[in-house]
Write a structure and sequence with these properties.
heterodimer, A: 115 residues, 7-stranded mixed sheet, B: 112 residues, mainly beta, 4-stranded antiparallel sheet, 12 strands, 52% strand
Chain lengths: 115, 112
């Protein structure tokens, strides 16, 4: 069974540009999560999808971030326009059911560098 | 609010040394506790977990005990190997919630 995959593995962009990160969850997992680790600090929750619906987007830092999950399969996270403080590692995770009782499986992350 | 505090890293040990990575938490509800590990070039992997007080999670020689009285979940291993070199994250999730709350991570390097 394939794990959670993320693309690209690394992206370097200039301030003001746009970047789109992609996450493919484990097949059959309705729950998809985005997290972010900035500057070696703690990993922070961004948002949670159940199928194509946003269940919780309380962790999204501002309106420069837009997440979508059309069709309830893969998800994209767009940052537009990117700022220096957006640099970090963006993790995606998926779970079969509600996370309280089911393990969240993480992807390898996308390292975003904004210069 | 909910938060997790881990010991500052990086931690460097020699092979076969005893390892402890401290983790304490603050929670508004009743949490489950986790240790995740990130090996170089890989994603986060669940290492072990405990869902109620006094439970002990264990895997790959690592152990951690859920201590409600001290709000702690310290990670221990009796004899580390070079292959244990990784970043370790302590985390919690509140019952009924959907999001993990992580500590800042501890980078562990084991020298042969």
């Amino acid at each position: 069974e394939a794990g959670v995959t993320q693309f690209p593995s690394h992206s370097v962009i200039e301030k003001g540009q746009t970047v789109t990160l992609r996450c493919d969850p484990i097949s059959g997992h309705d729950n998809l999560y985005w997290y972010r680790r900035v500057m070696g600090k703690e990993i922070k929750f961004l948002l949670h999808f159940v199928k194509e619906s946003k269940q919780d987007e309380s962790g999204m830092p501002n309106n420069r971030f837009l997440a979508e999950r059309t069709g309830g399969t893969y998800s994209t996270l767009k940052v537009q326009p990117a700022e220096l403080e957006d640099s970090g590692v963006y993790f995606c995770a998926s779970s079969q059911d509600q996370a309280w009782t089911y393990e969240q499986y993480f992807g390898p992350g996308t390292r975003l560098t904004v210069t | 609010g909910n938060s997790v505090t881990q010991m500052e890293g990086p931690v460097t040990l020699s092979e076969e040394a005893f390892l402890t990575i401290n983790c304490t938490y603050t929670a508004t509800g009743y949490p489950s506790l986790f240790w995740y590990v990130q090996y170089p070039g890989e994603g986060l992997q669940l290492l072990l977990k405990a869902t109620k007080a006094d439970d002990k999670g264990s895997n790959k020689g690592f152990e951690a005990t859920y201590r409600k009285e001290t709000t702690s979940f310290h990670l221990e291993k009796g004899s580390v190997q070079v292959s244990d070199s990784a970043v370790y994250f302590c985390a919690l999730i509140i019952q009924g919630a959907q999001k993990l709350v992580f500590g800042q991570g501890t980078r562990l390097t084991i020298n042969p």
